[in-house]
Amino acid sequence: MKHFKIAVAIFYLITTSLFAGTTGKISGRITDATTGEPLPFANIILMGTTMGAASDFDGYFNILNVP
Q1: Three-class SS of residue 19?
Q2: Contact, 53 vs 44, CB < 8 A?
Q3: What pLDDT digit, counting tens, does each position of 33-57 carry?
Q4: What is the pTM of this model?
Q5: What gap in Å lies between CA 44 and CA 52, rounded to an integer?
């Protein structure tokens, strides 16, 4: 019974680590190249995908669930 519990624990640890970290997050701040001022409500798009976000009033954005 002791070996069975150890085997189940090892199996659980291996399977949960396989599914961890399958998606990520891209966040940042978009600014004007010449003045350095934030660009509010700008669209940020990941090329080749349908993923993107819009920046907030201070130029910050987040794109979630990026594979």
Answers
A1: helix
A2: yes
A3: 999 999 999 999 999 999 999 999 9
A4: 0.67
A5: 5
